[in-house]
Amino acid sequence: MANTILVGAQWGDEGKGKIIDVLTEQAEVVVRYAGGNNAGHTVIVNGKKSVLHLIPSGILRKHKLCVIGNGVVCDPLGLVSEMEGLRKNGIQVTPKNFVVSETAHVVFPYHRELDGARELLKGKNKIGTTKRGIGPAYGDKAARVGLRMNDLVDSARLEEKLAGRIKENNAVLKSLGAKPLSFKQVFADYDRAGRHLKPHVQNTVVLLHDQMRAGANILFEGAQGTFLDIDHGTYPFVTSSNTTAGGACTGSGVPPNRMDRVVGVMKAYTTRVGEGPLPTENQEISDLLHGMGREFGATTGRARRCGWFDSVATRHATMVNGIDDLAITNLDGLDTVESVKVCVAYRRGKMQYDFVPNDAQILAECQPVYVEFAGWRTPTDHCRTFKQLPAKAREYVKAISELSNARLFIASVGPGREQTIFV
Ligand code: IMP
Questions:
Q1: pLDDT for 16
Q2: Residue of 37, 38, 72 to test ligand 1 pocket, by largest number of atoms within 8 Å of CB
Q3: Among 54, 238, 273, which residue has the most ligand 1 atoms within 8 Å of its CB, making it the best to mutate?
Q4: 41 counts as catalytic
Q5: Minimal-distance CA residue to ligand 1 atom 1
Q6: Is the CB of 134 under 6 A from ligand 1?
Q7: How high is the pLDDT of residue 1?
Q8: What is the Cα–Cα distance from 405 to 381, expressed in whole angstroms?
Q9: How far is the centre of ligand 1, averaged over its atoms, from the C-alpha of 247 (Å)?
Q10: Is 361 exposed, middle or buried (0-12, 13-18, 19+ CB in 10 A)?
Q11: Burial of 319 by CB count in 10 Å (0-12 exposed, 13-18 middle, 19+ buried)?
Q12: Distance (Å) from CA 38 to ligand 1 centroid
């Protein structure tokens, strides 16, 4: 398979979990490179649903090495409970198949509290974060006051550094009207988690290079999506990491010249959770998808905002990530639609855009320019080959791939592994 980066080409929740699971078959190593437990990757194997937040989905297959890279922010309590949940379901999680970078930053309760308090303070301008403390944790990393996994697994160091961080953060929390934290309690909880995780924590940069020398194929598992990227997304309505393909290099220590291919995952329509511009947002398609029981968040359970396919956005994603191949998911979500719309440009006053403007305010004022496709109005969830898809559905996926400027590689018609059509 060679080294492959998999990214979300929209606003997250593109169905990456399933595509990662499918591609993992051909990889020996799976690496998570950015984000934290704000992500929720849903994978269904033999009818059994697993939602993974931090651990790479590769864990669901035997003999795969799963790595949390240095670019991730790690909530150790969440991580330990995820590991225990998997073990309860009979999945092996050992230091042999699951390792965490010693330089990944740690998410503490004060990050979560600050995340919530800042959102409250923003009022109607809130970002709609997952309240997992992601922004404040990356903020500490950039401000060089964060603690990393190698601090967490060393009790004496943890005690000393945490004491200082709690003191400073309690003062900030008080000033924001939030409750201060008990050092004793936080230390006890985190020290326990650190002891549990210690056998898994190591230098993952050296490990990954050793693996490459031994001929391993690596799959880099992106979280969130292109337009939630801290640099390339709809700032400030973004997450706090580089979710785009470049993040795979900085977030793992594997250089750009060792990357062979980028796969972009996108839904056959568009969704977004949280606030911020979404040019093709549409009530009719939202109601339709929610009515089918679809499009509720895997991490927070929030109803996702839904809209028509936005090819201006996916073309932009191809450009920024260097997407070679496309996996189009949730095609079956459009099975009952009479006429399917695709946005091919944005209009704002007299201006027409064929790229995504950087300014979120300008993007919010953009109106989509649509072309329409006839709906196929036939169930597709049983289709197993491209030929079995209704002709109109084939036309649609071909058109949106062309408009997105990348090769059509996979069309997915349901959450199961078997509902994956390789084109
Ligand atoms: P944060 O990452 O929790 O700070 O949230 C920032 C923004 O990213 C919010 O709009 C979230 O809804 C969104 N977000 C974060 N993680 C995900 C994800 O995994 N899928 C979709 N949206 C996400």
A1: 93
A2: 38
A3: 273
A4: yes
A5: 129
A6: yes
A7: 64
A8: 26
A9: 16
A10: exposed
A11: middle
A12: 6
Mean pLDDT of residues grouped by 10 in the chain (423 residues)?
94 93 94 95 76 91 96 97 91 96 98 95 94 97 98 98 98 93 97 98 98 97 97 97 98 98 98 96 95 86 94 98 98 96 97 95 97 97 96 97 97 93 94
* SS3 category, 354: coil
Distance 329 CA to ligand 1 centre (A): 19
Asked whether the beta carbons of 123 and 104 are under 8 A apart, the reply is no
Q: What is the pTM of this model?
A: 0.96
Which H helix or E strand runs over 284?
helix 283-291
Our answer on whether the CB atom of 12 is closer than 6 Å to any ligand 1 atom is yes
- What gap in Å lies between CA 214 and CA 123, rounded to an integer? 52
List, in order of start, the domains of the chain with CATH numbers: 4-101+201-262 (3.40.440.10), 105-197 (1.10.300.10), 266-422 (3.90.170.10)
Query: Please, which residues bridge with residue 388 across strands?
Result: none
Distance CA 379, CA 333 (A): 9
Helix spans in 25-175 (H)? 76-88, 109-122, 134-142, 149-152, 155-175
Q: How does strand 407-412 pair with strand 420-422?
A: antiparallel
48's tokens: 């059994």
Query: What DSSP letter does each residue of 174-215 carry, written as one string?
Result: HHTTPPPPPHHHHHHHHHHHHHHHGGGEE-HHHHHHHHHHTT
Shortest CA distance to 28 belongs to which of 263, 241, 287, 211?
211
Alpha carbon distance 286, 334 (integer Å): 11
* 135 CB near ligand 1 (under 6 Å): yes
What pLDDT, on the 0 to 100 scale, is given for residue 309?
A: 98
C-alpha torsion sign, points 257, 263, 269, 275 = negative
